[in-house]
Design goal:
Blueprint: H1 18-30, H2 36-43, H3 47-57, H4 73-92, E1 101-110, E2 140-147, E3 152-158, H5 164-180, E4 189-191, H6 201-210
Parallel strand pairs: 1-4
Antiparallel strand pairs: 1-2, 2-3
Length: 213
């Protein structure tokens, strides 16, 4: 009997050996940002074998790195001072109502229906090579909300770019809604981000006129 499959004779040899696991582990510890392709190239293993070692033997998962805005030291000090001021105010003033601290923020919602590719997947047996186009400048709407521990006021919407005049209009809507509440929650503190349209002389004057500190 002639068997030409000489290379397949015998038991299948696994590459998931303690030695290879140690090699892969050492490379990952040296640089956790290495790709599977790079690790496989350094160790001389196949990508599939490298993937198997990472997932099954080392129990590792390729987590997505998040990015956050860098905060300068000056801003950290300002936040620390603000926290101390709030703390002192609450301690020194027995009538201070923490539930009447209002936090405000705004968010943009795009109207073209485009989904962030990081949150969208297409399941298929083969790569469909899909490509979706998105416009350079997408229409959007801005939503503004004020929140305290007892209720939410808003959202109020803007279709145009945020400006000091439009922000004042939002503030007026907020105050009129706040005054219409049944229990009429006070505004002990009013906190907003430091973007330029929020910090103009017109806005500060409007805050004074509306009785917002």
């Amino acid at each position: 009997m002639d068997d030409n499959r000489v290379g397949n004779v015998g038991l299948w040899q696994t590459v998931v050996t303690p030695e290879n696991v140690s090699k892969v582990s050492a490379i990952v510890q040296q640089n956790p940002r290495n790709t599977v392709r790079r690790i496989a190239s350094v160790t001389g293993l196949k990508r599939s074998s490298t993937q198997k070692i990472l997932r099954n033997s080392l129990r590792m998962f390729p987590y997505k790195i998040q990015s956050h805005r860098a905060i300068p030291i000056k801003a950290v000090r300002q936040r620390f001072d603000f926290a101390n001021e709030i703390d002192d105010t609450m301690i020194d003033n027995e009538g201070f109502d923490v539930g009447c601290i209002w936090f405000t923020d705004k968010a943009h919602f795009y109207l073209n229906g485009f989904v962030n590719k990081q949150n969208s997947r297409f399941w298929c047996s083969e790569n469909p090579h899909l490509c979706e186009e998105k416009p350079l400048y997408s229409p959007k709407i801005t939503a503004w909300v004020a929140v305290c521990s007892r209720c939410i006021i808003g959202p109020f919407f803007m279709r145009e770019t945020t400006s000091s005049e439009r922000h004042i209009t939002i503030l007026e809507q907020f105050v009129s809604t706040q005054l219409a509440l049944e229990d009429r929650l006070r505004i002990e503190w009013f906190i907003q981000d430091g973007s330029r349209p929020h910090r103009t002389e017109k806005v500060f004057r409007s805050l004074d006129d509306l009785g917002i500190e």
